[in-house]
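COURSE: Structural Biology Practicum
ASSIGNMENT: Worksheet 4, Part C
STUDENT ID: 0417
INSTRUCTIONS: Below are two proteins. For each, the amino acid sequence is given first, followed by its structure token string. Answer the questions at the end about the second protein only.

PROTEIN I
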Amino acid sequence: MSNSRPSCDRSLVLDGKVAMITGASSGIGAAAARLFAREGAAVVVTARRAERLESLVEEIRGSGGRALAVPGDVASADDVERVVRTAVDAFGRLDCAFNNAGFGTAGTDLHETGQDVYERTMDVNVRGVWNCLRSQVPVMLRDGGGTIVNTSSVAGQRATGASAAYVAAKHAVLGLTRAAAAEYGKRGIRVNALVVGSTLTEMMDRVVRELPELGRQFEQETLQKRMADPAEVAQAALWLCSDRSSFVTGAAVPVDGGTTAV
């Protein structure tokens, strides 16, 4: 009678990889951190809310995963550089990054949108991705390559019920993604974007509370007549960060329940 344990045919998608995830204190980012860790990655998570990050890290470690919290604001180049440097110091390298942090509003016309709202929207969504790319790319080039996924939106392809600032910012994320993919494709770095549809996140909860009719509109625009769970979006990010998507770069991958199909 054999005492050997039964073998498992399923390999871990990110086994041995090191991943950085921004906007990880809730929603899609937190879901991605849990998923990436379950799939074998050491995850370095960042966001402004330190207590939530620490709670997430404790949860991941309690389940046998590897995780490290580095609080910071993606709008700060120094903060982002510190996160990348800490990831490399702790785990030796950076294989993949999910630049997911976002900020958006809805329900206010362009001419009535405050300058502070515009600046914060652009800072988090555009400057944040810019800061991440500028810090992540050199480390990946040094080690022979890597994968980067940026979170865009249906608002990155057309006007939606979101603010004009958010629409502009998410269009810019697609531009940065394509430019980076073109520049670094021959040097082993793949860069893609998720075109995310309406998702049950804190930001969406706020919008729906203030503008319930907009929530109903978002649901009706999808072919599935519902919003996404954050974990569904995280699955797409996982695939793009993994070697299983090895011939995909410069893409805007819809995770939108069919919203952009019609």
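PROTEIN II
(use this one for the questions)
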Amino acid sequence: MKRTPVVRARVTRAKGGAPWLYLAPALVVLGGLLVYPVYELGLISFLEYTQAQVSGGEPTGFQGLANYRALFADAQFRQVLLTTVVFAAACVVATLAVGCALAVLLTRIRALPRLALTLAALGAWATPAITGSTVWVFLFDPDFGPVDKALSRLGLSGFDGYAWTYDRYSAFALVLLEIVWCSFPFVMVTVHAGIRAIPGEVLEAAALDGASQWRIWRDVMAPMLRPVLVVVTIQSVIWDFKVFTQIYVMTNGGGIAGQNLTLNVYAYQKAFASSQYGLGSAIGVVMLLILLAVTLGYLRLLRRQGEEI
């Protein structure tokens, strides 16, 4: 039976809507778990919502953008925002560098060392953030930590009993190392899977042309792995920008006089330590908007370069 144009159009529309039908249950679950909390977060950010309102002692009042005006007028918030951006960028760059280097290394070593490295990396990845942070604090403890003792035995007397979390920059460096340690396995495994999908003839041809390992990575692997690198970069940006556990545990709530505060810890202090839930929600909204802007901007840049995402 020959289909008329009207029938063919209806069939095409039905086929086009089929994927959405299959995705509907997942979209409903995501709507409940993601959209509604974001809506509540945004709503509270426009309210006067402190402990008095939570306990019912005073009525909740709508105050528009007052929380946001107070937030951006706060010099400490601006400083914490800048610190968070710089710290997250350093964590992302270090994580990608270590993860990509080890992914390439996995393609160069034999089966047994490759298995050992993969298991060690997955062990670090599977370690809960609070457990890993506590272990790293012990390792660098000025009194009992083995790192200070090992450094002093190597002749670096300045590290004998050195308190890593006392100084602002050494505390951030310590947290950065822990974040890279627990984050690089995701990058390593993902990039390694992408490298295995590259035809071996391409890499062999580059090697025969005399290209160094760095040139092979830069000119051959990285362009072919760009979709994979987009995923791990965006994921790393999201993880590192909203880091909380490592900062809170390793610097005891943000360091001395708040010198190691990041936005997530700052929002926690405002919302729960100071009972300024509206202000804490405003910080959460600002973080959400920044992450959305960075992600969409990065994807748009790649699309302008002709990349398929």
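ANSWER KEY EXCERPT:
Q1: DSSP finds 14 helices and two strands in the chain.
Q2: The chain has a mean pLDDT of 87.
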